Amino acid sequence: MAPQGSRAPLEFGGPLGAAALMLLLPATMFHLLLVARSGPARLLGLPPHLPAPEALWSPGALLLWLTWLGLQAAFYLLPAHKMAEGQELKDKSRLRYPINGFQALVLTALLVGLGVSAGLPLGMLTEMLLPLAWVATLTAFIFSLLLYLKALMAPASALAPGGNSGNPVYDFFLGRELNPRFGSFDCKYFCELRPGLIGWVLINLALLVQEAELLGSPSLAMWLVNGFQLLYVGDALWHEEAVLTTMDITHDGFGFMLAFGDLAWVPFTYSLQAQFLLYHPQPLELPTASVICLVNAVGYYIFRGANSQKNTFRKNPSDPRVAGLETISTATGKQLLVSGWWGMVRHPNYLGDLIMALAWSLPCGVSHLLPYFYLLYFTALLVHREARDEQQCLQKYGLAWHEYCRRVPYRIVPYIY
Ligand SMILES: NC(=O)C1=CN([C@@H]2O[C@H](COP(=O)(O)OP(=O)(O)OC[C@H]3O[C@@H](n4cnc5c(N)ncnc54)[C@H](OP(=O)(O)O)[C@@H]3O)[C@@H](O)[C@H]2O)C=CC1
Ligand SMILES: CC(C)CCC[C@@H](C)[C@H]1CC=C2C3=C(CC[C@@]21C)[C@@]1(C)CC[C@H](O)C(C)(C)[C@@H]1CC3
């Protein structure tokens, strides 16, 4: 049984690390937003000038942001074609989740399409990124505070394994409650997949529209970035149920890290390549574009293949698609796959994700480091995440996990790492 509450080992450098991250993450996000629109676009340089306070604060942005959250919450509450059950909780119960994320994406697309055909200036959204990012950050702070207070009244069985150290800064950052809910409305599940992910593709689209207005038509590079990232978001929502077995839902509490990550970091930094392209158009020839498409396709094939194989296996190990794979038995009764994608490396899904991350940056050329920020950040995130997951699996599976590591020695990249 893994140590819980105040006995759980501290992650992210403990309270000091958590405090530093709470300052550094928003600062990095604003740095990226400012540098992307600056002439030199230097990732490691200072932005040319800091924005005046009125460039950060706009009542219009606040209204737009609240409308967006309200709209996505309304889509979440619409009847779902399916209700899925989450993993078993400490008290042996299972929560139920609506599977209607893809429906929310389609409804958003229809609404935006209607708006644009009625004259809505979607491109103007690109002028509001700074104040929108500001209100999203404020929302994340306020929301995390409310979640922290709510968790003070939650029963012990509802608390996350980490995030209950007793240090308020650390617990605020990591999140105390595992699945905070208001009635049947699950805050973490909603934030993980809806406002931020759909917001990201909407911002990308606005950047494409703005580029078309400035240049007469969108560039090939902008099309590729939009297409690849739409595929990624569409895929996440199409396979929404799979998010229920990710570390974020099953292990991490809902605190500042995920609230800020989901609501602010994802839409405003994951759209960095498209932001860069609007201010720094890049020529891209068809043959190079075809090679980049191939890189994205290979990454997607590995990512989807690995994630689907594990989900199918976890749902039903006798499913004919996975029944022939080799496995190791563990003391918990669960099995570990040792052939197929999960016999190649211990995190094949991370490998596919990283290859896609490379494909998203390549359309921006090689003249600047800035569009490669996502690849660099994501490598660090996944290496750290992999180490966290190894710890959790070691605690869960003990000797069987050692045996798996012996049989599958590489973590993410075959023969390298
Ligand atoms: N774009 C982004 O910003 C981010 C994307 N991601 C993506 O999210 C996806 C999910 O990632 P994440 O939640 O970290 O982890 P995984 O989906 O890789 O899940 C890890 C879990 O899978 C199970 N598992 C591990 N090895 C095996 C095996 N051999 N056989 C069967 N089950 C196994 C274990 O859980 P158990 O045994 O309990 O089932 C383990 O804890 C990934 O594709 C990742 O790339 C993640 C973070 C950020
Ligand atoms: C701000 C910090 C640096 C850390 C925040 C991390 C978060 C941004 C990410 C943690 C796990 C995530 C996942 C996705 C998006 C980013 C965050 C929230 C995901 C929804 C992206 C789409 C994928 O298909 C997925 C597998 C559903 C992802 C799940 C994890």
From TrEMBL:
Pathway terms, separated by semicolons: Steroid biosynthesis; cholesterol biosynthesis
Catalysed transformations (reactions): 5alpha-cholest-8,14-dien-3beta-ol + NADPH + H(+) = 5alpha-cholest-8-en-3beta-ol + NADP(+); 4,4-dimethyl-8,14-cholestadien-3beta-ol + NADPH + H(+) = 4,4-dimethyl-5alpha-cholest-8-en-3beta-ol + NADP(+); 4,4-dimethyl-5alpha-cholesta-8,24-dien-3beta-ol + NADP(+) = 4,4-dimethyl-5alpha-cholesta-8,14,24-trien-3beta-ol + NADPH + H(+)
Key words of the record: Cholesterol biosynthesis, Cholesterol metabolism, Endoplasmic reticulum, Lipid biosynthesis, Lipid metabolism, Membrane, Oxidoreductase, Steroid biosynthesis, Steroid metabolism, Sterol biosynthesis, Sterol metabolism, Transmembrane, Transmembrane helix
Membrane topology, from the record: Multi-pass membrane protein
A Pfam family of this chain: ERG4_ERG24
Gene Ontology CC terms, in alphabetical order: endoplasmic reticulum membrane; nuclear inner membrane
Subcellular location: Endomembrane system; Endoplasmic reticulum membrane; Microsome membrane
E.C. number: 1.3.1.70
Transmembrane segment boundaries: 12-36, 56-78, 99-122, 128-149, 253-272, 284-303, 354-378
A GO biological-process term: cholesterol biosynthetic process
Molecular function as annotated in GO: Delta14-sterol reductase activity
Primary localization: membrane
Entry-linked InterPro entries: ERG24_DHCR-like, Sterol_reductase_CS
Protein task: Catalyzes the reduction of the C14-unsaturated bond of lanosterol, as part of the metabolic pathway leading to cholesterol biosynthesis.
Family according to the record: Belongs to the ERG4/ERG24 family.
Protein name: Delta(14)-sterol reductase TM7SF2
